[in-house]
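Below is a filled-in request sheet from our internal design queue. Each sheet records the structural input a requester submitted and the sequence that came back. We keep these sheets so that new team members can see what a complete request looks like end to end.

REQUESTER: design group, bay 2
PRIORITY: normal
MODE: inverse folding
CHAIN LENGTH: 126
BACKBONE (tokenized):
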């Protein structure tokens, strides 16, 4: 199983969401930024590294939310979400096609990567 971390980054009562590019797997789906855990890497080190690589920003990790296992046709992933805040740096996308800062009430309107749906629903309850 592939272990993937993602971050729900909050600022000004909004949360950051990113859209995958055409040339990525799950093209055009919305997700929380993050990526695969490397060998011998901790979950928290992974999410901090991935956010720096993908978005050029620094985050403070606040809390681990409930991991979610999802079986895509070609592989299973365990998606491990973290609540975080934007600590500094100007956001620049390295891989994704778009980002949005959204209010909670608008999150379920997006076309999410399937593995993210339970995470969005948990986030809406907190
Ligand atoms: N970062 C991130 N990945 C997610 C989310 N939801 C979800 O299903 N994934 C999947 O988890 C994997 C994350 O890997 P990644 O971001 O490091 O990898 P990638 O797109 O370069 O890899 P890939 O081309 O092998 O899919 C991808 O297969 C991606 O489709 C999410 O919210 N955030």
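RETURNED SEQUENCE:
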């Amino acid at each position: 199983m592939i272990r993937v971390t993602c971050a729900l980054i909050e600022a000004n009562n909004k949360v950051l969401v990113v859209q995958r590019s055409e040339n990525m797997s799950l093209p055009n789906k919305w997700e929380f930024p993050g990526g695969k855990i490397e060998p011998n890497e901790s979950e928290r080190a992974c999410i901090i590294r991935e956010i720096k690589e993908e978005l050029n920003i620094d985050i403070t990790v606040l809390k681990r939310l409930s991991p979610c296992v999802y079986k895509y046709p070609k592989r299973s992933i365990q998606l491990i979400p973290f609540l975080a805040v934007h600590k500094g740096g100007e956001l620049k996308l390295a891989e994704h096609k778009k980002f949005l800062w959204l209010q909670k009430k608008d999150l379920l309107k997006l076309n999410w990567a399937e593995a993210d749906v339970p995470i969005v629903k948990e986030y809406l309850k907190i």
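SHEET NOTES:
- The helical segments are 43-55, 117-125.
- The chain has two helices and eight strands.
FILED BY: M.R.
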